[in-house]
Write a structure and sequence with these properties.
By secondary structure, the chain is α+β, with helices and mostly antiparallel strands. The protein is built from 10 helices and 12 strands.
């Protein structure tokens, strides 16, 4: 609806998954660009499979799954939705100009009825603006309350970077193609140990398990981060299991992959729930439960390794032009 010299869109973000997934789901469903449950968007985009852990279990692990421009574009591309990502470092001398251009871009998107994904941090949704007060209306997904970001403060936060993502029109992609590409994205994530090189303090894919188990065994980790990583990890594996159950008939062999993830979730849910308790300062890990939790995580690693092995077999049965066709300028884009 219109409000003075601005706009407010009817968008509702709810934190349940990774913050980018939650924001993307809110934006695309409100705009009629995606229909279906959130676990389908999380699975089809490949976002559910992303798993990164800092060696000290810092909470930033959950969003440190790679360079956002690349990771998010490939995820949203697989949904057939146009995406434009804008961001950078606030320390750069050019930030003021980029900020001004981004503010205009957000208002233009909102005028077209499309909310924007915005790094608060974590990711939230800009769903409106007021030109007279020079503010954006922002949701973080944790509550139904709206936050306010002044135009002058756009992009400024306690991290050294800013990010804003816009979506556009959608094209239809055959479901089999989308499912197959989501599995290939998952396999790449699984087999890439470090998604944020040259930083090797973050492990991704199968290496993330090693970082997580080792930190829990050795101690000295971030307590809040440990709980956040574990809860986010379990949520993502529940999403994967539900997603694969929905699409298991699309590709031969996918039913077996789904069974492996279902077993993974079943084996982890109990030990993880037992390992987390709540006190006056919030959720904490029970030290006496860490041994059984680590054993459950080691079993989960085995199951996911088996699942990815099946995914590799499935992928190998179909041509993969995205990864087998080398552009004429080589492996890197033209400069």
């Amino acid at each position: 609806m219109s409000k003075r010299s601005g706009v407010i869109l009817d968008v509702q973000m709810k934190r349940e998954s990774k913050s980018f997934t939650d924001a993307l789901y809110a934006v695309t469903t409100a705009a009629g660009l995606f229909e279906g449950p959130k676990f389908m968007l999380s699975g089809l985009s490949g976002m559910a499979f992303k798993f990164t852990v800092h060696e000290k279990l810092l909470p930033m692990s959950v969003t440190a799954y790679g360079q956002w421009g690349t990771e998010h574009r490939r995820a949203v591309d697989n949904l057939g939705i146009f995406l434009l990502d804008d961001g950078g470092r606030t320390r750069h001398d050019s930030f003021g100009e980029y900020q001004r251009i981004a503010i205009d871009g957000v208002k233009l998107s909102l005028d077209r009825g499309l909310a924007c994904i915005y790094w608060i941090p974590e990711f939230g949704v800009i769903h409106g603006y007021d030109e007279d007060d020079r503010v954006f209306y922002v949701q973080d997904g944790w509550s139904g309350e709206t936050q306010y970001v002044l135009y002058d403060n756009f992009g400024l936060n306690f991290t050294p970077f800013w990010d804003c993502t816009y979506v556009g029109e959608r094209v239809k992609i055959p479901l089999q193609d989308t499912v197959l590409e989501s599995l290939r994205l998952a396999l790449e994530d699984w087999e890439t140990p470090h998604k944020t090189l040259p930083d090797v303090s973050l492990g991704s894919g199968r290496l993330a398990y090693s970082f997580l188990i080792r930190a829990l065994q050795q101690g000295g980790f971030d307590s809040y981060g440990a709980v956040y990583i574990l809860e986010s990890y379990l949520t993502s594996r529940i999403e994967i299991s539900a997603y694969l159950r929905e699409v298991q008939s699309v590709l031969p062999g996918l039913e077996e992959v789904q069974h492996l993830y279902a077993e993974l979730v079943e084996g982890l849910r109990g030990p993880l729930t037992a390992a987390i308790s709540e006190n006056n300062s919030g959720k904490v890990l029970n030290e006496e439960q860490l041994r059984s939790l680590c054993a459950a995580l080691e079993r989960a690693l085995e199951l996911e390794e088996q699942a990815m092995g099946r995914v590799k077999i499935i992928s190998g049965q179909y041509p993969d032009r995205k990864r087998s066709t080398l552009p004429r300028w080589g492996a890197h884009t033209a400069r």
